[in-house]
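Minutes, methods subgroup
Present: GH (chair), OT, SY

1. OT presented the first of two proteins processed in the latest run. Sequence and structure tokens recorded below as shown on screen.
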Amino acid sequence: MAKSKTTLFFCKECGYESSKWLGQCPGCKQWNTMVEAPKPSAGAGHTGIGSRSIASGFAIRTEAKPRTLKEIEADQSERRKTGFKELDRVLGGGIVAGSLVLVGGDPGIGKSTLLLQVCRNLTSGGTRVLYISGEESLHQIKLRADRMGEFSESLTLLCETDLDVIEGVIREEKPEVVIIDSIQTMFRESVDAAPGSVSQVRESTMALLQLAKGLGIPIFIVGHVTKEGTVAGPRMLEHMVDTVLYFEGDRHASYRILRGVKNRFGSTNEIGVFEMKADGLHEVPNPSQYLLSGRPQNASGSVVTCAIEGTRPLLLEIQALVCRTNFGQPRRTAAGTDYNRVNLLMAVLEKRLGMRLGECDAYVNIAGGIRVNEPALDLGIVLAIVSSYRDLAVPDGTLVFGEVGLSGEIRAVSMAEQRIAEARRLGFSACILPRVSLKGLRRTDDIRLIGVDSVAEAIKLL
């Protein structure tokens, strides 16, 4: 008898499936991303969100009838608050019942600490939370929890990696919130692969998705990231969950940034800022003041600009250092912003203003470790480069924002009113912005608004 095929291949980047191995994925065009995974057995029934097998405790639905929107009753129940305003902002207002939330980040960045603190906040209000750990023992979790303070009896802990056992415990205990730490440690006996492999992560996430939707329990799962910064496992893992949150920041620094990459129940442009201390994570209610702390006074190459993250304006310090190169090829470095954008802006300065930057090394940095690619930072980057090149300091208390075109013109940016209001709140006395953005702005005496049309006009103000 011919040997039956029991395996298939799929791309770990986009999830494209194939019956044979391919060097290049036809879906995402990436090379050497096809991995082997076992094909589901023929006896296994389909386990979609709307139907489950009898062995799992659900009857198979044999009839499916489409309905109109008017026939569907939407549950407008209030979202569950996490106790962190920054986290609630990123989630879109709180935790939605039956949602599956993926929290990713580098090892040691604070994912488990954040979720354990969320457990503490939820249980203090009487919410029953089940924390399932596959990486730490109960003793280790206890030691970490003691540093944070007292916990309520509503929090229960379980150290288990077998997903069949976990599923039975969730159905029996019926908690209101479940934490899985982490998805790479979970496994199913029916899947012939090691824990953390692509097939195990895929099957585990699907099982948790069915639990969340079927029982209406919000589930948070922790996912490790690869060296490229993406969640380990197939990219379809991000497509399966409702919300994807990334915890960013330098492990050796105290700040942490929680960024929403995907959110079916809210905006994906919001960020939350936290500070890591000895007793856990603390919210930073004023990120602009925090990011500008330690800024040098009357130093050349330092410019304050404003970026918009979702609905929140953030004041940032752009630093530039321009010096003569000792080699034939000048060096360019950009930290926190797009490298190609910096080269483009330097080309505008060379062509439109005749500055000989081709003979100089240029280093551009956004202080604080945050990464922003908004076009409104263009004018700030340009003035920081010119300030360092000519050794002229931008006056203290001056905010700069605006997009720079290839002709050297200063173009309008969105939400100019909110940027000026944030600068006024932090005590800035002047603001250089595109002249076209002055239309409709309310003038006040506490901040001077200076409109410019070109880069040359902005540089003259220095």
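2. SY then presented the second protein from the same run.
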Amino acid sequence: MKIAMIGTGYVGLVSGVCFSDFGHDVVCVDKMPEKIAMLERGEVPIYEPGLDAVMARNVDAGRLTFSTDLTSAVGGADAVFIAVGTPTRRGDGHADLSYVMAAAEEIAKALTRYAVVVTKSTVPVGTNRKVAEVIRATRPGADFDVASNPEFLREGAAIDDFMKPDRVVVGVESDRARDIMGDIYRPLFLRDFPIVYTDLESAEMIKYAANAFLATKISFINEIAALCERVGADVKSVARGMGLDGRIGNKFLHAGPGYGGSCFPKDTSALARIGQEHGVPQRITETVIAVNDLTKRRMIDKVVDICGGSVNGKTIAVLGVTFKPETDDMREAPSLTVVPALVGGGAKVRVVDPHGRREGEALLPGVEWMDDTYTAAAGAECLLILTEWNQFRALDLKRLAKAMSRPVMADLRNIYEPDAVLAAGFEGYAAVGRAQPDPGLAISRTAAQ
């Protein structure tokens, strides 16, 4: 199959590269000449484990190319995927569809024969029909179908998610379009991965409903964590006891500083707005959004408390600022709420993140970027863990405690055990959903073991 992928952001680039690995001929199109030049040099503009190797393999095989020329890419294509951004629109929380509609208009002008125009971007219900209207208005008589094919890629695991998906969702209205989409995903069908064919509206809704449900699990466990702290329960034990129930499952039950990233914040906001527009308020989703905002702000109080009630004049070493590990994505990351508040409170903030600096330098002014955890911790009065990168999971706690001027830790990802931290020489330890340990008792227990 010949595929044109419009947009080389996270979704477009990963999808285009993986489609070429299926054996299809793919042209990835972007308006930014500098990005296309970068890709042609073999450089990947985002950090995604394994993506560079798969991209290089398919470029070498002649199946994957990059271009700024949408017209030539669309002409002769069997399927044209729209994978442009749909950010939250300022002021009203709606998804901004201007890039999608502009792409649809350009595609209409470039069509030379029948093609399926596939929306890969996350869009509100009804968008694919609007895409069809734009194409018909721009090119009356054009021979095409539209399809909805939402993505379900986790940043940091996108290649595996694409190659071994839980399911592929395809919204189509004609046998012709279904056949082409079936050919595109035939390598997955042959390996028995589920392909769910449905109508356009259901495919669009599946994406929003899935993300809102996952965000709900996160906000739920974060509210339970806050309650655990008050009543003396341990949220890690609570989450494990819940997650072993097959009806609930253990994924997305890890208490922390709140969700972020490119999907959950904007998709929950868009779903809430869709519900309001249609007179069916999504009360649970609206509450999830509010709880997530409160969770991020609660983390600020937690850090201030462990620092003795004020961060003014204190040095804080922050480990991790991307919204999750194995990505350089800073969008809606908890760090964008927590770190500016610490800087605003008079703290001197040092940041260590293996891939966050490229975006973080512009988003987090007033911090000092460092490459090494132990250097960042030297003379610091608080160690703050915001992102659970693997390199932060096995630190030499005794070395850190000796290097710090006042060794306290705010572990907002619950990656360490309180007793072990205090036994290593830390004077204080704060986590999420875990009772504040007594340093003397914790050290005694550890020594007895």
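Chair's summary of item 2: The two ends are 63 Å apart (CA to CA).
Next meeting: continue with the remaining queue.
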